[in-house]
Write a structure and sequence with these properties.
alpha/beta, single chain, Rossmann fold, globular, five-stranded parallel beta sheet
Length: about 210
């Protein structure tokens, strides 16, 4: 994606963007709408992901998804659409979100450190030919970087949806969809739509 203008991103210099006291709800809605509109440049990208994912999962591979906080919630949403259904009837496909088991997450974090919370599960569940998708607004989460490194070592395809690039996670994976919006909540708005487009591409792909 091409960078958005400062009027959309809210960036006026270095550092994290913060909401202005003069910003209105309408301003934020406008930023999210314009961010979503920028996904038009990623339609082909998301379509390729959907077709590739449908083919791999149809051959018995699995999707592993990881994220923190709101990104974890989005990962749960994506996995539910694949294991259940999105909009039409089709077979169930194998997908796991690595934040789903609190006992595993907390045990691994306690015994190995939080940076290993997802990597250890990738090592347990991942197989060559699987796909690992990291969801992040910052692209800087240590546990996602460690999980991506583990996935690549195991022969697993690595993808990410992140906020503005460049960022460490975008550099660590095989392919990335980067959302060029400064505010975390706006990135999350756009990523939600991107996930639904990915699900639609998955459903439209040939089995």
């Amino acid at each position: 994606m091409s960078p958005l203008p400062s009027s959309l991103t809210g960036r006026t210099g270095s550092g994290s963007a913060r909401p202005s006291r003069r910003e209105t709800l309408a301003d934020r809605l406008d930023a999210s709408c314009r961010g979503v509109a920028m996904l038009a440049t990623e339609i082909g990208h998301l379509d390729r992901w959907g077709r590739r994912l449908r083919r791999r999962l149809g051959q018995g591979a699995r999707l592993l998804v990881a994220g923190n906080g709101g990104s974890a919630a989005l990962g749960h949403h994506l996995v539910a659409e694949l294991v259940g259904r999105f909009e039409g009837e089709r077979p169930a496909y194998s997908a796991l979100v690595l934040s789903a088991e609190p006992a595993s997450v907390t045990a691994i974090a306690n015994d190995y450190g939080y940076d290993q919370a997802f990597a250890r599960q990738v090592e347990a569940h991942g197989r060559p030919g699987d796909v690992f998708l990291a969801l992040s607004t910052s692209g800087c989460s240590g546990n996602l970087l460690t999980a991506a490194d583990t996935a690549r070592r195991l022969g697993i395809q690595t993808w990410a949806m992140t906020g503005p690039a460049p960022n460490p996670l975008a550099d660590a994976v095989d392919d990335v969809v980067a959302v060029p919006c400064a505010m975390t909540s706006t990135v999350q708005d756009v990523q939600q739509v991107a996930v639904h487009l990915l699900c639609l591409a998955f459903d439209l792909a040939e089995p």
